[in-house]
Amino acid sequence: MTALPEAASPLYERVKHYVRDLIRDGQWRLDQRLPSENDLVQSLGVSRMTVNRALTELTREGVLKRIQGVGTFVAAPRPRSALVEVANIPAEIGARGHRHRADVLTLGRVVPAAAILASFEFAAQRDVFHSRIVHYEDDVPVQFEERFVNPDLAPDYDRQDFARVSTLDYLQSVTALTEIEHVVSAIAADEETGHHLDVAPGEPCLLLHRRTWTGPTVATVNRLLYAGSRHCLGSRYKPTSPS
């Protein structure tokens, strides 16, 4: 039986502390599925009602996210500041005096993987819009964009011609983006990424994970890939004065 922290009481609060400690220590990571309620009941030696209350409260507090029929996952923390601005890549390329072109590889509806469902914070399994687009600057591929879109906020997403209008322009025209989360990581190009960005497999790439919200609702979950040798990400801003 796993030992619960002694300081917190009542019992459901001790379960909450236990879960928070595992997340804080990195044993349960972002978007990782938690053990089932039955498994937690057996390992912690508490009632199912106690476990359910603890997980329900942690979900309300934004620590966890629950998807009906899929499971309970570690939620991503909401951003405190933007790492980079939400940029319109056709406008960026035009501002440099170059020509933009977009090749739409995929546009339709899918039932995404569990991690994407968890990122949307949906209460149950469901389908979303999915697009994959390669952006070119003077015929050189500069961005491989994969986007998952909440159909409740952009119901006509799959009817757009994204070779003519950018996904960002369309989304901003139909829903207000009120919150943005950016996470940048370095990855090695796999075969598909290498093909679309015209780089060798294994070459360093920049991966920008982006989520956007409209009010409390997640609007989009995105993966934006760039060839590391041809692109950089950054921002300029004025820091807020200390209070």
Describe what this molecule looks like in 3D.
The chain is of the alpha+beta class and 243 residues long. The chain has two domains: 11-74, Arc Repressor Mutant, subunit A; 89-227, 3-Layer(aba) Sandwich (Chorismate lyase), CATH 3.40.1410.10. Helices cover 26% and strands 29% of the residues. It has a six-stranded antiparallel sheet with strand order 3-4-5-8-7-6. Strand 7 and strand 8 form a beta hairpin. It is elongated and about 65 Å long.
What topology does this entry show?
Blueprint: H1 11-24, H2 37-44, H3 48-60, E1 64-67, E2 71-74, H4 89-95, E3 100-110, H5 114-120, E4 128-137, E5 140-149, H6 167-174, E6 179-188, H7 191-197, E7 204-214, E8 217-227
Antiparallel strand pairs: 1-2, 3-4, 4-5, 5-8, 6-7, 7-8
Alpha-beta content class: alpha+beta
Which class of the largest domain in CATH terms? Answer: Alpha Beta
Portion in beta strands: 25-35%
Instruction: Tell me the CATH architecture of the largest domain.
Output: 3-Layer(aba) Sandwich
CATH superfamily of the largest domain: Chorismate lyase-like
Helical proportion, percent range: 25-40%
**Could you give the distance between the termini?**
46 Å
Number of helices: 7
CATH topology of the largest domain: Chorismate lyase
Strand order of the largest sheet: 3-4-5-8-7-6
Summarize the biggest pleated sheet: 6 strands, antiparallel
Number of domains: 2
- Strand runs, count: 8
Kindly report the average pLDDT value: 87
- Rg result: 21 Å
Give the low-pLDDT segments: none
Shape type = elongated
Order of helices and strands: HHHEEHEHEEHEHEE
